[in-house]
Prior knowledge:
By secondary structure, the chain is α+β, with helices and mostly antiparallel strands. It is 40% helix and 17% strand. It has a four-stranded antiparallel beta sheet. The chain has one domain: Alpha-Beta Plaits (2-Layer Sandwich).
Amino acid sequence: MSGNITFTMIKPKAVENGHIGNILAKVIEGGFTIKAMKYLRLTKEQAMEFYAVHKERPFYNDLTEFMSSGPIVAAVIEKENAVEDYRKLIGATNPADAVEGTIRKLYATSIEANAVHGSDSDENAQIEAGFFFSKLEVF
Ligand code: ATP
Ligand code: MG
């Protein structure tokens, strides 16, 4: 399975703006299949734990406040070369720099509220999937 999965979240602002369906459609059209999915709201502490790699960054507090501000969709998705291909499909971190047609270009409203998360390595994909899902919840 390693190498073929990545982890994604649809962030609170994109959920609030009604983009869950459109984003999932892009994911599926992009050739990914859904292996696990849930709709939930993170606590501030859970968001801080998830984003602990960024704890020294100036945006850490705002980011974790934002990520715990409303419900998100968390999912494990599968495709050959999943991590790299998904980061191509979502586009640059800052939507202003994202390529036309990417999920962030279409649905992000700012660098913080950039519509979706995508894992940055196979190792982190496994760690992040394990943060949200037990073995029994991944198909
Ligand atoms: P993600 O990890 O969410 O897929 P990414 O890998 O493109 O995004 P990271 O560098 O891991 O970007 O940053 C994590 C998140 O922190 C970004 O998605 C964004 O929401 C937020 N972020 C990154 N840089 C900034 C910044 N300069 N100002 C505000 N928020 C930022
Ligand atoms: Mg990242």
